[in-house]
Structures are given as C-alpha cells and as structure tokens.
Amino acid sequence: MSRREDMMxxxxxKPAPRRIFQERLKITALPLYFExxxxxxxxxxxxxxxxxxxxxxxxxxFYTDKKSTIYIDKLDIIDLTCLSDQNSTxxxxxxxxxxxxxxxxxxxxxxxxxxxxxxxxxxxxxELSVPQHVSLLPGQVIRLHEVLEREKKRRIETERLPxxxxxxxxxxxxDSVDLLNPMPxxxxxxxxxxxxxxxxxxPSWGNMILRPGSDSRNYSITIRQETxxxxxxxxxxxxxxxxxxxxxxxxxxxxxxxxx
Length: 260
Known about the structure:
Elements: H1 3-10, H2 18-25, E1 32-41, E2 49-56, E3 59-63, E4 73-76, E5 82-86, E6 94-99, E7 104-109, H3 112-127, H4 138-160, H5 163-175, H6 192-201, E8 208-212, E9 219-225, E10 228-237, E11 240-244, H7 252-259
Antiparallel strand pairs: 1-2, 1-7, 2-3, 3-4, 5-6, 6-7, 8-9, 9-10, 10-11
C-alpha cells in the first residue's frame, strides 16, 4: 500500500463540502446514495486511478478529488451482471470486480470496512434488494434499506415521466451539461501543465482546451498554434466572459484609419 493510501486508510473520508455538493447537483439531479475514495481500473486504464466517487442512482461518478465540481468519468452500473470479490495481497484492502455486459471494472478501497459499504450500496441499487451477506453494522444496514426505498421510488417516478423528459434527462447526464452554466466539450478539469501535455502529445484532443483558472473562479484557455502552445485567461464579467489577449485586438476600421 502506498503512503498516500495508508494515510487515507487511517482517516475516514469526510463528505464533500455543501457548496461542492450543490454545484454537482447542477450537472445531475440523480440522488446521492454513497460517496468516498475508490481506486478504479477500467479496461482502457493501464493502472488503478484514484478518484473521489459518488454513487448517484445507478451511476458512479468519478472526480479527481473531493473538491472537484466536474466529474471526469462515470460508469452506469444498472445492467450489472455480478460483483465478484478478489483476493488482495494488500493489508486492510478490499478489491472486487464489477462485471458489466460490455466491460469489467476493478475497484479497490482503502480499507475492508469501506469495501463492504461499497458492495452493499452497489448491490442494493442494482438488484433492488438489500444483500444478506455483507458485514455491516445495524446503522449501515438501515441506510441500505433507506436507499432501497429511495431508488424504488425514483424508478417509479422515472417511468411515469413523459418519454421526452426521460430522454432530456439522459442527454443532460450523458453530456455533463449544466443547464444554468453550459460547458463546451473542450472543457477539462486539468492544470496548465496537463493541458499543455495533452495538446503536445495527442493531436486527437484538438487544438484548444478550456480549463479551470488558477483562482478557481474564472477559466483559462490553452491553444496550440502549429508548434506553439499559448495560454489565455478567461474572466467572468457578469453573465459574460472576456478573453484577455497578449496584444489587444483592433477592429478593421481602426487599422484602416492607422494606414490612412
């Protein structure tokens, strides 16, 4: 177990701050059932990735850390085939695999108790029944029953919605769009250095990345112009945004007057 994982095993994770919780609600209205740190390995990952994870409805949302407001990956587990435990050589660590129709995802927790909780909540929302063979305290089992009732109610209400409303909800979740503050597809929660590496190493990312600014309130744009990488600050002014260029741009009329 790494030093970082060992430190986290000693300190149980606290819930994300209320402000962060409200920001995430703008992206998806799915109810939050459980949250905590998870080590995740999907087929396309070369190694386990450390995420703050939320179980909302029957979807796992992955964040780079507890304070991130935009998830970087998600996993729909409603069609879970089975959850298989794996023997782990690491001390005080739970490891299991989510078997889905199109992929198998490995999950690892920082301690065995957290692993039992994740197993309990995942199986409860996917099987719509509280699993019998989980080692949880009475209070934790009560939470599972509460989540079970909430998930049953949510599914009934979803089935009653008009088809257009259901499709709209799916589209909103799929595109990770905040209806009050829509983010374009080029937005990534990465640093200046990471954005530079993305554009230099993988042309498939395109030639522009919108990312959070260093002050956490505004944004920045990283652009690749041929072989040169440039960064621009995006400042929020009321409901509008202004891009601060290195040299102020002049309109055609001003240029014509200068030549005249």
